[in-house]
Each structure stands twice: as C-alpha cells, then as structure tokens.
Amino acid sequence: LFGKSEEFLALPQGKLTGKVLTELVLKKFSQLEPLAQSIVLAVDQEYIQPENILTITSATEIAIIPPLSGG
Length: 71
Fold this sequence. Notes:
alpha+beta
C-alpha cells in the first residue's frame, strides 16, 4: 500500500480495542480512509475484530490487509 515492506507507528502500550487500533492506523495513514470499510488488521499474525481487546507492546506486529477479491 505504501511502497514499503514495513513502517513504524508509535502506539500507546497496554490494552486497547481493535476499533481504537483501527482508528489510530487510519489517523496515521489517512490515504487508507477511502478503504476503511474494506481493510482488515492483523495483530501478531492474527486477524482482529473491533471488539477484540489487544495488548500492545513494543514488539507487536500490525499488518494492514488490503481489500481482497476472489471466487
């Protein structure tokens, strides 16, 4: 999405919801806003839902999964 294999994002450490994490990612990467309803986030290689309670540390990996299509 950004022409980079990785990007670092300063996040508050501790617990937050999947919804809050998504909002923080969209705030940092505003070019994703048009895709907000289509992207999925994964934390430490597991897809997340808005209601998930996540523990964020300095070692947490967050992946932005672009819209997928298939059949």
